[in-house]
Every structure is written in C-alpha cells, then in structure tokens.
Design goal:
By secondary structure, the protein is mostly helical. The chain has nine helices and two strands. It has one domain (about 10-155). One of its GO terms (molecular function) is sulfotransferase activity.
Length: about 160
Amino acid sequence: YPRRHAPETQLSEFNMTDIEAMLGSYTKVLFVRDPFQRLISAFMQGMGSSPSFSSFVQDVLAGGQHYASETWKPLVSLCRPCLVQYDYVVVFGFLRQELGHLLRRAGLPAGSLLPEFTDTQARWTYSWLSEQMFSELSLQQKKQLSHFYRWDLSAFPFSSSLLTD
C-alpha cells in the first residue's frame, strides 16, 4: 500500500476506504499470550510499585481498562480482532511451530530463518509460576480478573488459562 503517512500514524487516523485498502494489502499476524501470564510478566518486570502480586492485581483492577497499561490491557481492546481480519493468530508457547508454518506459507525456508525459541520450554515454568501466583489471589480477585479479561478469553484459544475456570 502506498505510504502517504509518517511511520507513527495510527490506523484510526485514516478513512474507512484507506483502512480497508491498507489492511487488504498486508498479511496480518497477531501474536497473543494468556492474559494472566502477561500480568505475571508485568509484575516480574517491576511494571508496578506493588510489593506483592496480589496488591499489583488489585491496582490493575482498580485502574480499570481505561487506565490500564498496554502491558496488561486486554488484547481485544488493543488489536480489535472483531474489526481486523487477521490472517494468522500466533499463541505464545507455540511460536516455533507456528512461525515455521507462516514462513513455509510465504515460500521461505523455515528452519534456517528461525531463531531458537524458549517459549515452548518455558511453558512448564510459566504453568508452575501461574499456579503459585494464582493461589495468592482471593476468590474475588480471581473473579474480577476473569471479568476484566473476559473478551480475550472468549476471542483467543487460552483453554488452559487459570482465568477460564
């Protein structure tokens, strides 16, 4: 699509005709991660000033979606999967397999272009860590988080997410 804009231009700044033309000319790939794992990652990276994971979650919930950081904001509000027809949705934990498939579909040699991914090996660690962090939360916090991320949990295949219970 001819670039008539600066790299920082938001898609929402264009009219619908231009948006449809731009989106139709690209292969659209969306990378997603379990929202609870995104919260844990944000906490571990010191994104909040809370001393415990439970208090961090309480701060996130108190801020609501309008004041949420992009780090833990629901994905549906960031990437608009109901409006944008993504060609591929790649789930964290399966990057190597899914990116290999994408490269083969593009006619590229998948094996030689892919870096070594640790997401598959990290699944067990994240599973254990998720269970530990989840056990720190009150039943009310668990329910509120499930509600906070309800659209992500409906839109994406996070069947093993602790928030789906």
